[in-house]
Amino acid sequence: MSDQPSKNLTSTFAARRAAHLMLGRRGEKLAARVLRELGLDILARNYRTTRGEIDIVAREGTTLCFVEVKTRHRSLRSRPADAVGTAKRQRIIRAAKQYLREIGRPRIVYRYDIVEVIVRGRRVEDMRYWRSAFSEEKGRGGLTFPGGPHLEGWDLLE
Fold first, then answer.
1. Domains, the chain, ranges and CATH?
2. Burial class (CB in 10 A: 0-12, 13-18, 19+), 128
3. pLDDT tens for residues 35-61?
4. pTM (2 decimals)?
5. pLDDT one-digit tens code per residue, 5-24
6. Distances (CA, A) of 17 to 10, 24, 70, 103, 126
7. How many CA atoms lie within 13 A of 13 on its CB side?
8. CA torsion, points 142, 143, 145, 150, in degrees to nearest 10?
9. Is the per-residue pLDDT at 4 higher than 80?
10. 32, 113, 115, 129: most buried by Cβ count inside 10 Å?
């Protein structure tokens, strides 16, 4: 038996993975631009630690914002933000705690936000921004989406 089928499967997987990562990077870039236009200061992008990753660290007034960006192709099954489950939230919280340690543990208000980007082809079909989408509080582990604002009319190529 030849190795050809496994090579094809591996290269197909690699191509899909690369496209998925590129889509995510474009979504994060667009989210950062939109957050700037909404008046937030972007402090860091793709902050990584062994404990987790934060897509965007921003400041809105005196509040520090740890922002998770989820970019997906249009799907009727679920929203991109639904992918921010318990394990993902815990990784974000651990990374945020590390970030706070690195900046000297200031007494500052902070929150966990989600930006959701839904694309069709190369166009953004829908974008939503949820401030305080989840918290560290016990008993409030689920996501709260109180109808975040729709941010329409953006293009991933811009």
1. 26-134 (3.40.1350.10)
2. buried
3. 999 999 999 999 999 989 999 999 999
4. 0.77
5. 555 656 664 555 565 567 67
6. 10, 11, 15, 34, 23
7. 6
8. -170
9. no
10. 115
Residue 66 burial (CB count, 10 A):
23
Tell me the HSE value of 98 on the side-chain side, using a 13 A CA sphere.
Answer: 14
CB neighbour list of residue 91: distance below 8 Å, 6 or more residues apart: 51, 52, 53
Residue with tokens 């997987």, as numbered in its chain: 13
Place of tokens 């474009």: 26
**Amino acid 80: pLDDT:** 79
User: In sequence order, what DSSP letters do the residues of 101-158 get, joined into one string?
Assistant: HHTT----EEEEEEEEEEEETTEEEEEEEEEEEE-S-TT--S---S-PPB----BTT-
CA–CA distances in Å: residue 35 to residues 94, 113, 150: 23, 11, 13
**CA gap 124, 150 in Å, rounded:** 11
Token digits for 89? 């939230």
From CA 42, how far away is CA 20, in angstroms rounded?
24
Question: Angle at CA 70, nearest 5°, toward 105 and 19?
Answer: 120
